[in-house]
Amino acid sequence: MANKLAQANYPINMKIISLLLPKGVTCTFPQTTDDLVALGKQHKHALQSPCFTELCKKGDYLIFTLSASHDKSDFYTFEFNTKTGSSEFGFMRHAVGMRNKPAPQWLRNHAKRVAHEVFLEIFKHK
Fold it and tell me: What residue ranges do the domains of the chain occupy?
């Protein structure tokens, strides 16, 4: 059974995020643990394990994907620390694609912009 991720309740404005990204780059935010497991299976990496799903479920990490391709399997997953009391708040912990292939730097830079925008929205509403 799917458990809702904490980020499913975040005030994420996809219109603003789409304006931050270059043409052809799309962004998606998983909403449930089943979404994470499906991403992990598709990419053949640990997103399907409890060490990722549980931390995202309770809101310790913001996780999303960016794709710059028409190939639905060609996307990268990014994970950022959301614990405000942590010295690693905002730190990008995860930036990989298929079989843990590192995300290209230009896409990492766009992921940082997306995470920054989401953090601004989250804390504006608290």
Answer: 6-124
